[in-house]
Hints:
The chain is of the alpha/beta class and 448 residues long. Helix content is 32%, strand content 21%. The chain contains 16 helices and 20 strands. It has helices at residues 18-30, 47-54, 86-93, 101-108, 122-135, 150-153, 169-173, 193-196, 199-207, 226-232, 276-290, 296-303, 333-340, 380-389, 401-411, 433-445; strands at 11-15, 34-39, 58-61, 74-77, 98-99, 113-117, 140-144, 162-166, 182-185, 218-222, 238-243, 251-253, 257-260, 263-267, 314-319, 322-326, 347-351, 370-375, 395-397, 417-420. The strands form 3 sheets. A 9-stranded mixed beta sheet has the order 7-8-6-9-10-11-12-13-14, with helices on both faces. The protein has a 6-stranded mixed beta sheet with strand order 15-16-20-17-18-19, with helices on both faces. It has a 5-stranded parallel beta sheet with strand order 3-2-1-4-5. The longest helix has 15 residues, at 276-290. It is globular, with a radius of gyration of 23 Å. The protein starts with 10 loop residues before the first strand and ends with a helix. The model has no long low-confidence stretch (mean pLDDT 94).
Amino acid sequence: MKTLSNFPYEHVLVLGLAKSGTAAAHLLIDSDVKVRVNDFKAEETSESVVGLKSKGAEVILGGHPLTALDGIDLMVKNPGIPYENRLVDEAVDRGIPVVTEVELASYLHEGPLIGVTGSNGKTTTTTLIYDMIQADQKPVSVAGNIGKVSCEVARYTSLEETMVVELSSFQLLGTEAFRPDVAVWLNLYEAHLDYHHTLKNYHDAKAKLIANQTEEDALVYNADDERVMSYVQSAKARRIAFSLEHQGSGAWADEQSIYFQDEAIMKREDIVLVGPQNLQNILAAVAAVKQVGVSNKAIEHVLTTFTGVQHRLEFVTETNGRRFYNDSKATNILATSYALRSFEKPVILLAGGLDRGNDFDGLKEYLSGVKGMVLFGETADKLATTAEEAGITSIVKVETMQEAVDAAYDLSTTEDVILLSPACASWDQYRTFEERGNMFTEAVHKLK
Length: 448
């Protein structure tokens, strides 16, 4: 098990425990760094607090006193804690670097590192890359926003092992020296404005993925996304495009096959995943794994067997001719637009959730195949206005997921698609998008 070496900080404040903070604190203590932990909600008797105290950490609970910063030369914060937090704000004012645990992982991992970001498709692409490398019988690990703490996974990786890391804007904003050997930038859209406040701040956070890359590194990017293109033009890394619109270079596709450069990889008809967004994710994954020498055979094996990631256009069941899909991970307009473009059958759309201050005008053009909408959460009224402007007359507002599924079924007929694709975060009613998706699945199975 590895520890940090040549680490330039001596006294670190870990702000927020949860999984990432606990893992970071243990790593730092094991690396002989003095650690102070501050968490507002944790209990003295919790396993994480007891464990860290037993190893010598100083633990401050129940508030965020500014004295917690005294003597500190680095803050490692939970990615979800906003920069308006009084301790984070004060740390910035004092010139104390504020990072997330992903930064620590970059000090540990010695093998190839593939970093994946984008407004949508991160988890699917990260999983595809991991599966393709594994199918080629090469050592590989996966971490990051996909659910595994990066600095914890990196403690066990070997020199020959590729580490694939899914990276959110929250995680990337807290990086200083992080440098992936292969950066994968899927797309760039409007999201998380409640956290970043402006579109530019959000986009600039994403751009930290490529900030430290050099000519020795590779950048896989979406040549069809103008916002991504505006950032990658000045990148120092070797650039590899993926595209549905431009053929002949990087990873691309025509009606028959997918390609890498001038080499056909496999026929499109043999790919299991549906939808244009998943074809983009596939091309990005192909371009990425080609940078670490993965064979066409391994790529084809994965693409003919991979059925998708839970809560991401996940097929649930068919009931009385209605097909139900769980796309709870669709937390913004772009993700929902991709989902809607994946179906030719009429759709009953279940949508709504946390109000982040944006409107839904960008969704209108994708509602032509929607025959009814069932809306919930803080954005129900906004979405109802959008639906009316799009000419949809069957609109129902509900309070619970079971009510939503029941209402959707009542609006549907045989051969319709009933799709949960909220276009919003879940936090107004649910702790996570996974919980929301699970509630949808349970409600579907309760239908009579």
